[in-house]
Design brief:
Number of strands: 16
CATH topology of the largest domain: Rossmann fold
Helix content: 40-55%
CATH superfamily of the largest domain: P-loop containing nucleotide triphosphate hydrolases
Shape: flat
Bound molecules: adenosine-5'-triphosphate, magnesium ion
Strand order of the largest sheet: 2-1-3-4-5
CATH class of the largest domain: Alpha Beta
CATH architecture of the largest domain: 3-Layer(aba) Sandwich
Distance between the termini: 80 Å
Number of domains: 3
Structural class: alpha/beta
Length: 462
């Protein structure tokens, strides 16, 4: 079987890898699959073969002895009719993925390479070559600020890729996701990876502003426009100029403002409150919501035309429970931050505690995880966060989340007090029937006795 490229010849694939054994393995495997393979062991050779061999697809290791793979990628994608480039790297981190996608990589395969994944990617790239009209846009080199978004699951990698692509253009983006999933972080990442990163990034929470003042916040007002408008004030759209404005909780904006926002998105123009004069702004709009906007449209609570205008590109940030594989990494990241911010020296978290965290459903997502770890770190004296600290905090969070729909905002109470409270509660509920209490708490009788003594709870008979 022969894999064909344009003109029905075998599709030519250039493999660039400085490691002879891995190069050979890929060469043999892909030749057997019917590709016409050419190989290069460094960046210089890659660029020479790019001209001489005219490959349809390049499989590029980002770590090469003579050049950085991202630089090679940019060089390749800077050419007319550039081939698709599949990036291979051992560092499957966010920065590399974002950079690679931003500079127009077709796909991203982490080491150790799954050859089936690689072949599937090559096949898709070849297919696209047959029909394609032009490659992805390649931006000039930019320095990045670091906005860490931690994650290595498939779901997050997709998001990094999308950020890379969207940071290269100015389309309106709708970011959807539950509370605390990192929507604002994603919006910032798009901005700070864009050519406009030195322009302002302004976030405004549409749900947190007093009724009637939101319009003036967004579009500004003239002196005397309403009682209390003692001077002219510029709105966020004006202040953002060529930067990005994040309209957080977009589902909360009232109908008449929806119309004005729609007008801005269509014409890039708005008026200050109390003025007829149209003002132009180039601000990029990113909207975020934890509501189901499509459902709100159906219920007539959100303008359909605005919904489509906002939803030109969309990112759905998954809840933490759907990517629990990221929890250990995020825990480690947060603990490092806490060590720095609280001057702590946490070195470890007990295995059982981590397992409990991976199992929990985190309705408040990463913000809730941050809250619980902050409490835990504050009440940890040594270098290890113990399960006996984490367990009551999570139990307390479960209660708060159910009773008050308090999405991860349980107050930080000392775990000891939380546990004492829990034991007292169980004693009362079960009328001091120790057998039932032990069962309710999932505790053995000696443990219960010990804890009651420790917390100074006097014994009573049922
Ligand atoms: N992937 C991640 N890696 C590291 N930190 C994260 C990640 N996602 C979110 N965070 C952190 O979690 C907190 C909540 O994130 P963010 O404010 O972006 O969420 P949100 O979706 O905008 O929440 P809300 O709906 O409540 O506005 C922030 O402190 C943020 O830094
Ligand atoms: Mg937010």
């Amino acid at each position: 079987m022969t894999k064909t490229g344009p003109g029905h010849k075998a599709a030519r694939v250039l493999i660039v890898d400085d490691e002879p054994s891995s190069l050979e393995l890929l060469e043999v495997y892909l030749s057997e699959k019917g590709y016409d393979i050419v190989c290069a062991v460094n960046g210089k050779e890659c660029l020479r073969l790019l001209d001489e061999a005219d490959p349809q697809v390049i499989v590029l290791d980002v770590r090469l002895p003579d050049m950085n793979g991202i630089d090679i990628l940019r060089e390749i994608k800077g050419r007319k009719n550039a081939p698709h480039v599949i990036i291979i790297t051992a560092f499957h981190d966010m920065e590399t993925t974002i950079r690679a996608m931003k500079f127009g990589a077709f796909e991203y395969i982490p080491k150790p390479i799954d050859v089936d994944d690689l072949e599937a990617a090559i096949e898709r790239a070849v297919d696209l070559t047959k029909t394609r009209t032009g490659g992805l846009r390649v931006g000039p080199e930019r320095e990045f600020e670091k906005w860490d978004i931690i994650g290595k699951t498939k779901e997050m990698k997709e998001i990094f890729k999308t950020i890379g692509i969207l940071s290269g253009n100015r389309v309106t983006v709708l970011i959807e996701g539950e509370t605390g999933t990192g929507k604002e972080l994603v919006a910032r990442a798009i901005h700070y990876h864009s050519p406009y990163k030195n322009e302002p990034f302004i976030a405004i929470n549409c749900g947190a502003i007093v009724d009637g003042l939101l319009e003036s916040e967004l579009f500004g007002h003239e002196k005397g426009a309403f009682t209390g408008a003692i001077a002219m004030k510029k709105g966020k759209f004006e202040l953002a100029s060529n930067g990005t404005i994040l309209l957080d909780e977009i589902g909360e904006i009232p109908m008449e403002l929806q119309t004005k926002l729609l007008r801005f998105l269509q014409q890039k123009e708005f008026q200050r409150v109390g003025s007829e004069r149209s003002i132009h702004s180039n601000a990029r709009v990113i909207a975020a919501t934890n509501r189901d906007l499509a459902a709100m449209v159906k219920e007539g609570r959100f303008r359909e035309d605005l919904f489509y205008r906002l939803n030109v590109a969309s990112i759905k940030v998954p809840p933490l429970r759907d990517r629990s594989g990221d929890i250990p990494l995020i825990v480690e990241y947060i603990l490092k931050k806490l060590n720095r911010d609280l001057g702590k020296g946490i070195e470890q978290i007990e295995k059982k505690a981590l397992a409990r965290m991976v199992d929990y459903s985190w309705p408040g997502n990463i913000r809730e995880l941050e809250n619980i770890l902050t409490c835990a770190a504050m009440y940890t004296q040594g270098v290890v966060i113990l399960d006996s600290v984490i367990n009551p905090l999570i139990e307390e969070a479960k209660k708060t989340n159910i009773s008050a729909a308090g999405k991860g905002n349980a107050p930080c109470r000392e775990p000891v007090l939380v546990e004492k409270d829990r034991i007292l509660g169980a004693l009362e509920e079960n009328h001091w029937h120790y057998g039932k209490v032990c069962k309710a708490l999932g505790m053995s009788r000696p443990t219960l006795n010990k804890k009651m003594k420790q917390y100074g709870i006097p014994k009573k008979s049922s």
